[in-house]
Amino acid sequence: MSASTVITRDQLVVLAVFAAAAVAMAFSEPEFAFFALVTLSSASFLLGTAFRGFLALRSGRPPAAQQGQEVPGEMLPVYTILVPLYREANVLPRLVRELRQLNYPSQKLDIKLIVEAHDTETAAVAAGLAGDGPFEILRVPDGWPRTKPRACNYALLFARGEFTVIYDAEDRPERDQLRKAVAKFRNSNADLACLQARLSFYNANEGWIPRLFTLDYMIWFCSLLPGLDRFGVPMPLGGTSNHFRTSVLRELGGWDPYNVTEDADLGIRIAQLGNRVSMLDSTTFEEAPTTFRAWHRQRARWLKGYMQTWLVHTRDPFALWRRVGPRGFLAFHLFVGGSILTALANPFLWLVFVLSLILHWHLPGGAWGSSLVIVSGGGVIGGHAMRLRPMG
Protein backbone atom coordinates (compact mmCIF):
# COMPACT_ATOMS: atom_id res chain seq x y z
CA MET A 1 0.00 0.00 0.00
CA SER A 2 2.75 2.44 -0.93
CA ALA A 3 3.04 4.92 -3.78
CA SER A 4 6.76 4.15 -4.12
CA THR A 5 5.45 2.25 -7.15
CA VAL A 6 2.63 4.42 -8.43
CA ILE A 7 1.19 2.04 -11.02
CA THR A 8 1.67 -1.71 -11.29
CA ARG A 9 2.17 -3.80 -14.40
CA ASP A 10 -1.37 -5.20 -14.22
CA GLN A 11 -2.81 -1.70 -13.98
CA LEU A 12 -0.71 -0.59 -16.95
CA VAL A 13 -2.02 -3.50 -19.00
CA VAL A 14 -5.65 -2.66 -18.18
CA LEU A 15 -5.14 1.02 -19.00
CA ALA A 16 -3.33 0.15 -22.23
CA VAL A 17 -6.22 -2.08 -23.34
CA PHE A 18 -8.76 0.67 -22.69
CA ALA A 19 -6.59 3.27 -24.43
CA ALA A 20 -6.10 1.04 -27.49
CA ALA A 21 -9.84 0.39 -27.70
CA ALA A 22 -10.57 4.13 -27.43
CA VAL A 23 -8.09 5.00 -30.19
CA ALA A 24 -9.44 2.28 -32.46
CA MET A 25 -12.99 3.52 -31.89
CA ALA A 26 -11.95 7.13 -32.55
CA PHE A 27 -10.55 6.20 -35.96
CA SER A 28 -13.27 3.78 -37.02
CA GLU A 29 -16.35 5.54 -35.62
CA PRO A 30 -15.33 9.12 -34.71
CA GLU A 31 -18.87 10.44 -34.22
CA PHE A 32 -19.89 7.54 -32.00
CA ALA A 33 -16.58 7.78 -30.09
CA PHE A 34 -17.13 11.47 -29.36
CA PHE A 35 -20.73 10.83 -28.35
CA ALA A 36 -19.55 8.07 -26.00
CA LEU A 37 -16.87 10.35 -24.52
CA VAL A 38 -19.40 13.05 -23.70
CA THR A 39 -21.80 10.45 -22.31
CA LEU A 40 -19.21 8.89 -20.00
CA SER A 41 -17.88 12.28 -18.91
CA SER A 42 -21.38 13.51 -18.11
CA ALA A 43 -22.24 10.30 -16.27
CA SER A 44 -19.08 10.42 -14.13
CA PHE A 45 -19.64 14.09 -13.29
CA LEU A 46 -23.29 13.58 -12.41
CA LEU A 47 -22.62 10.49 -10.30
CA GLY A 48 -19.86 12.21 -8.36
CA THR A 49 -21.98 15.30 -7.84
CA ALA A 50 -25.02 13.27 -6.79
CA PHE A 51 -22.93 11.39 -4.23
CA ARG A 52 -21.63 14.65 -2.79
CA GLY A 53 -25.18 15.94 -2.63
CA PHE A 54 -26.13 12.79 -0.74
CA LEU A 55 -23.25 13.36 1.70
CA ALA A 56 -24.37 16.96 2.21
CA LEU A 57 -27.83 15.72 3.17
CA ARG A 58 -26.29 13.22 5.61
CA SER A 59 -23.97 15.75 7.23
CA GLY A 60 -24.40 18.18 10.08
CA ARG A 61 -22.51 19.08 13.19
CA PRO A 62 -22.81 16.28 15.76
CA PRO A 63 -24.40 17.09 19.11
CA ALA A 64 -21.92 18.00 21.81
CA ALA A 65 -22.96 14.89 23.75
CA GLN A 66 -21.33 12.73 21.09
CA GLN A 67 -17.92 14.03 22.14
CA GLY A 68 -18.28 12.37 25.54
CA GLN A 69 -17.70 13.71 29.06
CA GLU A 70 -14.55 15.77 29.54
CA VAL A 71 -11.72 13.85 31.22
CA PRO A 72 -10.46 15.41 34.51
CA GLY A 73 -7.01 16.99 34.31
CA GLU A 74 -5.33 14.43 36.56
CA MET A 75 -6.59 11.60 34.33
CA LEU A 76 -5.49 13.09 31.02
CA PRO A 77 -2.89 10.98 29.16
CA VAL A 78 0.38 12.15 27.64
CA TYR A 79 -0.39 13.70 24.24
CA THR A 80 2.22 13.89 21.47
CA ILE A 81 2.13 16.81 19.04
CA LEU A 82 4.12 16.43 15.82
CA VAL A 83 5.02 19.66 14.00
CA PRO A 84 7.02 19.11 10.78
CA LEU A 85 8.98 22.23 9.85
CA TYR A 86 10.88 23.12 6.69
CA ARG A 87 12.33 26.61 6.21
CA GLU A 88 9.72 28.08 8.55
CA ALA A 89 11.87 29.97 11.03
CA ASN A 90 9.76 33.09 10.51
CA VAL A 91 6.54 31.50 11.81
CA LEU A 92 8.10 29.59 14.72
CA PRO A 93 7.57 32.29 17.39
CA ARG A 94 3.84 32.41 16.72
CA LEU A 95 3.64 28.60 16.56
CA VAL A 96 5.34 28.13 19.93
CA ARG A 97 3.06 30.79 21.45
CA GLU A 98 -0.04 29.02 20.11
CA LEU A 99 1.07 25.62 21.44
CA ARG A 100 1.83 27.06 24.88
CA GLN A 101 -1.73 28.36 25.08
CA LEU A 102 -3.37 24.94 24.60
CA ASN A 103 -5.70 24.04 27.45
CA TYR A 104 -3.79 20.90 28.42
CA PRO A 105 -1.38 20.22 31.31
CA SER A 106 2.11 21.17 30.14
CA GLN A 107 3.70 18.21 31.91
CA LYS A 108 1.52 15.88 29.85
CA LEU A 109 2.43 17.38 26.48
CA ASP A 110 5.11 15.83 24.28
CA ILE A 111 5.72 18.38 21.50
CA LYS A 112 8.12 17.37 18.73
CA LEU A 113 9.45 20.17 16.51
CA ILE A 114 10.66 18.19 13.50
CA VAL A 115 13.43 19.83 11.48
CA GLU A 116 15.35 18.51 8.46
CA ALA A 117 19.05 18.00 9.17
CA HIS A 118 20.18 20.58 6.59
CA ASP A 119 17.67 23.26 7.71
CA THR A 120 20.03 24.93 10.15
CA GLU A 121 18.17 28.27 10.31
CA THR A 122 14.90 26.71 11.47
CA ALA A 123 16.76 24.48 13.92
CA ALA A 124 18.59 27.47 15.44
CA VAL A 125 15.39 29.49 15.91
CA ALA A 126 13.60 26.44 17.36
CA ALA A 127 16.42 25.90 19.88
CA GLY A 128 16.13 29.49 21.04
CA LEU A 129 12.35 29.40 21.46
CA ALA A 130 11.78 25.93 22.87
CA GLY A 131 14.40 25.91 25.58
CA ASP A 132 11.89 25.19 28.32
CA GLY A 133 8.54 23.43 28.49
CA PRO A 134 7.33 20.30 26.72
CA PHE A 135 9.27 20.93 23.48
CA GLU A 136 11.79 18.60 21.88
CA ILE A 137 13.66 19.35 18.67
CA LEU A 138 14.19 16.35 16.40
CA ARG A 139 16.65 16.59 13.51
CA VAL A 140 15.60 14.24 10.70
CA PRO A 141 18.63 12.46 9.20
CA ASP A 142 19.31 13.07 5.53
CA GLY A 143 17.59 10.55 3.31
CA TRP A 144 15.11 10.06 0.54
CA PRO A 145 12.39 10.99 -0.09
CA ARG A 146 12.75 14.32 1.71
CA THR A 147 9.06 14.71 2.51
CA LYS A 148 6.77 15.70 5.36
CA PRO A 149 5.48 12.12 5.92
CA ARG A 150 9.04 10.77 6.14
CA ALA A 151 9.84 13.37 8.79
CA CYS A 152 6.70 12.45 10.73
CA ASN A 153 7.53 8.74 10.56
CA TYR A 154 10.95 9.47 12.04
CA ALA A 155 9.41 11.50 14.87
CA LEU A 156 6.82 8.79 15.52
CA LEU A 157 9.66 6.56 16.73
CA PHE A 158 10.10 8.89 19.71
CA ALA A 159 6.43 9.66 20.47
CA ARG A 160 5.59 9.12 24.14
CA GLY A 161 1.89 9.97 24.06
CA GLU A 162 -1.09 7.65 24.13
CA PHE A 163 -2.49 9.90 21.41
CA THR A 164 -0.71 11.79 18.64
CA VAL A 165 -1.79 14.81 16.60
CA ILE A 166 -0.07 16.47 13.64
CA TYR A 167 -0.11 20.26 13.19
CA ASP A 168 1.44 22.44 10.52
CA ALA A 169 3.63 25.41 11.39
CA GLU A 170 0.95 28.04 10.74
CA ASP A 171 -1.87 26.20 12.56
CA ARG A 172 -3.94 27.76 15.33
CA PRO A 173 -5.98 24.97 16.97
CA GLU A 174 -8.81 25.81 19.34
CA ARG A 175 -7.50 25.77 22.88
CA ASP A 176 -9.56 22.78 24.08
CA GLN A 177 -9.05 20.60 21.01
CA LEU A 178 -6.83 18.00 22.74
CA ARG A 179 -9.26 17.63 25.65
CA LYS A 180 -12.15 17.13 23.22
CA ALA A 181 -10.16 14.48 21.35
CA VAL A 182 -9.35 12.56 24.56
CA ALA A 183 -13.01 12.67 25.60
CA LYS A 184 -14.21 11.30 22.28
CA PHE A 185 -11.55 8.57 22.15
CA ARG A 186 -12.40 7.53 25.71
CA ASN A 187 -16.12 7.29 24.89
CA SER A 188 -15.71 5.40 21.58
CA ASN A 189 -14.97 1.84 20.58
CA ALA A 190 -11.40 0.68 20.10
CA ASP A 191 -11.83 0.60 16.32
CA LEU A 192 -11.79 4.42 16.26
CA ALA A 193 -8.24 5.06 15.06
CA CYS A 194 -8.35 8.73 14.13
CA LEU A 195 -10.28 11.96 14.67
CA GLN A 196 -10.27 14.71 12.05
CA ALA A 197 -10.80 18.24 13.31
CA ARG A 198 -12.36 20.85 11.03
CA LEU A 199 -10.00 23.18 9.18
CA SER A 200 -10.64 26.81 8.34
CA PHE A 201 -8.64 29.99 7.66
CA TYR A 202 -7.81 33.06 9.72
CA ASN A 203 -6.93 35.18 6.65
CA ALA A 204 -10.20 34.73 4.72
CA ASN A 205 -10.53 38.49 4.15
CA GLU A 206 -7.18 38.95 2.41
CA GLY A 207 -8.55 38.54 -1.12
CA TRP A 208 -10.87 36.51 -3.31
CA ILE A 209 -8.61 33.42 -3.37
CA PRO A 210 -8.64 33.03 0.45
CA ARG A 211 -12.41 33.59 0.40
CA LEU A 212 -12.87 30.79 -2.14
CA PHE A 213 -10.58 28.54 -0.09
CA THR A 214 -12.67 29.25 3.00
CA LEU A 215 -15.85 28.35 1.13
CA ASP A 216 -14.22 25.18 -0.19
CA TYR A 217 -13.04 24.12 3.28
CA MET A 218 -16.46 24.85 4.79
CA ILE A 219 -18.03 22.48 2.27
CA TRP A 220 -15.30 19.87 2.74
CA PHE A 221 -15.03 19.81 6.55
CA CYS A 222 -18.57 20.80 7.53
CA SER A 223 -20.49 18.87 4.89
CA LEU A 224 -18.68 16.19 2.88
CA LEU A 225 -16.41 14.62 5.51
CA PRO A 226 -19.16 14.57 8.16
CA GLY A 227 -21.35 12.91 5.52
CA LEU A 228 -18.74 10.19 5.01
CA ASP A 229 -18.47 9.81 8.79
CA ARG A 230 -22.22 9.31 9.23
CA PHE A 231 -22.40 7.02 6.21
CA GLY A 232 -19.69 4.83 7.78
CA VAL A 233 -17.35 4.65 4.77
CA PRO A 234 -13.60 5.34 4.20
CA MET A 235 -12.68 8.98 4.80
CA PRO A 236 -9.58 10.70 3.36
CA LEU A 237 -7.93 12.84 6.01
CA GLY A 238 -7.08 16.53 5.79
CA GLY A 239 -3.43 17.50 5.95
CA THR A 240 -3.40 18.59 9.59
CA SER A 241 -5.21 18.23 12.93
CA ASN A 242 -5.41 14.44 12.59
CA HIS A 243 -5.60 12.90 16.08
CA PHE A 244 -4.51 9.25 16.30
CA ARG A 245 -4.26 6.46 18.80
CA THR A 246 -0.46 6.22 18.75
CA SER A 247 -0.44 2.42 18.98
CA VAL A 248 -2.77 2.09 15.99
CA LEU A 249 -0.76 4.62 13.98
CA ARG A 250 2.36 2.53 14.54
CA GLU A 251 0.53 -0.65 13.55
CA LEU A 252 -0.50 1.08 10.32
CA GLY A 253 3.14 1.86 9.54
CA GLY A 254 2.67 5.61 9.80
CA TRP A 255 2.46 7.74 6.67
CA ASP A 256 3.46 6.80 3.13
CA PRO A 257 6.49 9.03 2.38
CA TYR A 258 5.98 8.62 -1.39
CA ASN A 259 2.38 9.86 -1.54
CA VAL A 260 2.03 13.64 -1.96
CA THR A 261 -1.34 13.50 -0.15
CA GLU A 262 -0.21 11.09 2.53
CA ASP A 263 -3.14 12.19 4.71
CA ALA A 264 -5.79 11.07 2.20
CA ASP A 265 -3.97 7.77 1.69
CA LEU A 266 -3.73 7.12 5.43
CA GLY A 267 -7.46 7.65 5.88
CA ILE A 268 -8.22 4.99 3.27
CA ARG A 269 -5.56 2.66 4.70
CA ILE A 270 -7.15 2.97 8.15
CA ALA A 271 -10.43 1.67 6.67
CA GLN A 272 -8.67 -1.10 4.74
CA LEU A 273 -7.14 -2.42 7.96
CA GLY A 274 -10.43 -2.53 9.85
CA ASN A 275 -10.43 0.77 11.74
CA ARG A 276 -12.37 3.97 11.23
CA VAL A 277 -12.06 7.76 11.18
CA SER A 278 -14.55 10.17 12.72
CA MET A 279 -14.97 13.94 12.84
CA LEU A 280 -14.01 15.99 15.90
CA ASP A 281 -16.18 18.98 16.85
CA SER A 282 -13.28 21.41 16.97
CA THR A 283 -11.60 23.74 14.47
CA THR A 284 -8.01 24.49 13.56
CA PHE A 285 -7.31 27.74 11.73
CA GLU A 286 -4.51 27.94 9.18
CA GLU A 287 -3.30 30.31 6.49
CA ALA A 288 -4.89 30.15 3.03
CA PRO A 289 -2.86 30.77 -0.14
CA THR A 290 -3.29 34.33 -1.37
CA THR A 291 -1.88 34.08 -4.92
CA PHE A 292 -2.97 32.18 -7.98
CA ARG A 293 0.43 30.46 -8.23
CA ALA A 294 0.21 29.12 -4.66
CA TRP A 295 -3.38 28.02 -5.25
CA HIS A 296 -2.44 26.21 -8.47
CA ARG A 297 0.52 24.41 -6.89
CA GLN A 298 -1.57 23.20 -3.98
CA ARG A 299 -4.49 22.05 -6.16
CA ALA A 300 -2.15 20.24 -8.56
CA ARG A 301 -0.51 18.44 -5.65
CA TRP A 302 -3.89 17.41 -4.22
CA LEU A 303 -5.08 16.08 -7.57
CA LYS A 304 -1.82 14.19 -8.10
CA GLY A 305 -2.07 12.71 -4.60
CA TYR A 306 -5.66 11.58 -5.15
CA MET A 307 -4.54 9.88 -8.37
CA GLN A 308 -1.76 8.11 -6.46
CA THR A 309 -4.16 7.10 -3.67
CA TRP A 310 -6.75 5.75 -6.11
CA LEU A 311 -4.12 3.72 -7.99
CA VAL A 312 -2.60 2.32 -4.79
CA HIS A 313 -5.91 1.16 -3.33
CA THR A 314 -7.25 -0.34 -6.57
CA ARG A 315 -4.29 -2.67 -7.13
CA ASP A 316 -6.42 -5.46 -5.71
CA PRO A 317 -10.06 -4.36 -6.10
CA PHE A 318 -11.40 -7.65 -4.71
CA ALA A 319 -9.40 -7.20 -1.50
CA LEU A 320 -10.66 -3.62 -1.23
CA TRP A 321 -14.25 -4.90 -1.60
CA ARG A 322 -13.73 -7.51 1.14
CA ARG A 323 -12.10 -5.08 3.58
CA VAL A 324 -14.41 -2.07 3.30
CA GLY A 325 -17.57 -3.74 2.02
CA PRO A 326 -19.67 -2.86 -1.05
CA ARG A 327 -20.79 0.49 0.40
CA GLY A 328 -17.23 1.53 1.25
CA PHE A 329 -15.99 0.28 -2.13
CA LEU A 330 -18.54 2.37 -4.01
CA ALA A 331 -17.95 5.43 -1.80
CA PHE A 332 -14.19 5.24 -2.35
CA HIS A 333 -14.57 5.24 -6.12
CA LEU A 334 -17.20 7.98 -6.14
CA PHE A 335 -15.39 10.26 -3.69
CA VAL A 336 -11.69 9.72 -4.46
CA GLY A 337 -11.96 8.52 -8.06
CA GLY A 338 -14.85 10.89 -8.67
CA SER A 339 -12.73 13.87 -7.58
CA ILE A 340 -10.23 13.01 -10.32
CA LEU A 341 -12.84 12.39 -13.02
CA THR A 342 -14.86 15.53 -12.30
CA ALA A 343 -11.71 17.67 -12.37
CA LEU A 344 -10.81 16.23 -15.78
CA ALA A 345 -14.35 16.25 -17.18
CA ASN A 346 -15.28 19.72 -15.95
CA PRO A 347 -13.54 21.86 -18.63
CA PHE A 348 -14.50 19.40 -21.38
CA LEU A 349 -18.21 19.49 -20.47
CA TRP A 350 -18.20 23.28 -20.20
CA LEU A 351 -16.66 23.43 -23.69
CA VAL A 352 -19.37 21.20 -25.15
CA PHE A 353 -22.11 23.20 -23.47
CA VAL A 354 -20.74 26.65 -24.45
CA LEU A 355 -20.12 25.63 -28.06
CA SER A 356 -23.67 24.39 -28.34
CA LEU A 357 -25.00 27.73 -27.08
CA ILE A 358 -22.73 30.11 -29.00
CA LEU A 359 -22.23 28.26 -32.27
CA HIS A 360 -25.51 26.34 -32.24
CA TRP A 361 -23.36 23.24 -32.48
CA HIS A 362 -24.98 19.84 -31.90
CA LEU A 363 -23.69 16.45 -30.98
CA PRO A 364 -24.33 13.61 -33.42
CA GLY A 365 -27.23 11.38 -32.57
CA GLY A 366 -30.22 13.61 -33.25
CA ALA A 367 -32.49 13.96 -30.26
CA TRP A 368 -30.13 11.90 -28.11
CA GLY A 369 -27.27 14.28 -28.89
CA SER A 370 -29.35 17.36 -28.11
CA SER A 371 -30.50 15.81 -24.86
CA LEU A 372 -26.93 14.99 -23.93
CA VAL A 373 -25.84 18.59 -24.42
CA ILE A 374 -28.56 19.65 -21.98
CA VAL A 375 -27.51 16.93 -19.52
CA SER A 376 -23.82 17.90 -19.71
CA GLY A 377 -24.58 21.59 -19.24
CA GLY A 378 -27.14 20.99 -16.54
CA GLY A 379 -24.71 18.66 -14.80
CA VAL A 380 -21.85 21.14 -14.56
CA ILE A 381 -24.12 24.07 -13.62
CA GLY A 382 -26.13 22.03 -11.11
CA GLY A 383 -22.99 20.41 -9.78
CA HIS A 384 -21.30 23.72 -9.05
CA ALA A 385 -24.52 25.12 -7.58
CA MET A 386 -24.92 22.09 -5.31
CA ARG A 387 -21.48 22.78 -3.85
CA LEU A 388 -22.90 26.01 -2.42
CA ARG A 389 -25.64 24.23 -0.47
CA PRO A 390 -23.89 24.26 2.96
CA MET A 391 -23.70 28.08 2.80
CA GLY A 392 -27.48 28.37 2.67
Overall pLDDT: 86
Query: From the coordinates shown, what is the CATH architecture of the largest domain?
Result: Alpha-Beta Complex
**Distance between the ends:** 40 Å
Count up the domains.
2
The percentage helix is: 40-55%
What is the ordering of alpha helices and beta strands? HHEHEHEHEEHEHEHHEHHH
Question: What keywords describe this structure?
Answer:
single chain, alpha/beta, 2 domains, eight-stranded mixed β-sheet, elongated
Q: How would you concisely characterize the structure shown here?
A:
By secondary structure, the chain is an alpha/beta fold.
Task: Explain how this protein is built.
It is a single chain. By secondary structure, this protein is of the alpha/beta class. The protein has two domains: 9-58 and 316-391, no CATH class; 67-313, Alpha-Beta Complex (Spore Coat Polysaccharide Biosynthesis Protein SpsA, Chain A). It is 54% helix and 13% strand. It contains twelve helices and eight strands. The chain has helices at residues 9-28, 30-58, 92-100, 120-129, 148-156, 177-186, 208-231, 246-251, 262-272, 292-313, 317-358, 367-386, and strands at residues 79-85, 109-116, 135-140, 163-166, 172-173, 192-201, 242-245, 276-286. An eight-stranded mixed beta sheet has the order 3-2-1-4-7-6-8-5, sandwiched between helices. Helix 1 crosses helix 2 (30-58), helix 2 packs across helix 7 and helix 10 (292-313) packs across helix 11 (317-358). Residues 388-392 have low confidence and may be disordered.
